[in-house]
Design brief:
By secondary structure, this protein is an alpha+beta fold. It is built from seven helices and six strands; from the N terminus they run H-H-H-H-H-H-E-H-E-E-E-E-E. The protein starts with a helix and ends in a 5-residue tail after the last strand. Pfam families: Dynein_C (PF18199). One of its GO terms (cellular component) is dynein complex.
């Protein structure tokens, strides 16, 4: 997490970083800040329990109350949304670990993650991001800039014939991105990974689903 946070700061400071790298870097910074808070909170609880901090503050009292009940403290839960069962302390910590691992894989190591083709081969867990709306906005900005298209010419579509490993960029910057962990309502992902409208309850597609920005010029 420390190494990833360092790469995130470097990416944000680099004026050459494109919108998608910067979005993932901001996510990584948010994750690092949350992890630092969790560690500091747990250290405060340990210090009080060991008698090294005799004063019981309201913050420590709240932490002790939540953890004693098996719940993640309110300050932790406010960082990201999740189902009721994920608010238990053990489940919440496991969820945070998955989010950290996901971001670590996206930003890559030194010198990785800036290549145009790389982003079409990655899989993005949208629900594991702290600001999924901001991430999707960044994918649109990235595609528009990479291909020289206007933002208002781009329309988001779901599904496609490509297989994981390529986002449909024709060998250059991708126009599509693989999204995992979705629950789809009002549509189904059929064979070939194309989406079709259906009158059925929410379903969870197997594997990743391609979300693609298609260019549709004004008047088309």
């Amino acid at each position: 997490a420390v190494a990833a946070a360092g790469r995130a700061r470097a990416a944000l400071a680099d004026p050459a970083s494109h919108a998608l790298v910067r979005a993932v870097a901001r996510e990584t910074e948010a994750a690092a800040e949350l992890l630092a808070r969790v560690r500091a909170d747990l250290e405060a609880v340990v210090e009080f329990g060991a008698g090294r901090e005799p004063k019981l503050t309201n913050a420590v009292r709240e932490l002790l109350g939540a953890l004693a009940a098996g719940e993640a403290p309110p300050g932790w839960r406010a960082a990201f949304a999740g189902p009721a069962e994920a608010q238990r302390a053990e489940a919440w910590v496991a969820d945070l670990g998955r989010r950290l691992g996901h971001l670590e894989g996206l930003l890559g190591g030194e010198g990785e993650g800036q290549g145009q083709e790389d982003w079409g081969a990655k899989e993005f867990w949208l629900g594991g991001l702290f600001n999924p709306e901001g991430f999707m906005t960044a994918t649109r900005q990235y595609v528009a800039h990479a291909h020289g298209w206007a933002l208002d010419e781009l329309v988001l579509t779901m599904g496609g014939a490509e297989q994981p490993g390529g986002g449909g960029g024709g060998g250059g910057a991708p126009t599509g991105f693989w999204i995992t962990g979705l629950a789809v309502e009002g549509a189904a992902v059929e064979e070939g990974r194309r989406a079709a409208l259906v009158d059925a309850p929410a379903t969870r597609p197997e594997g990743a689903v391609l979300f693609r920005w298609e260019r549709r010029p004004a008047g088309a």
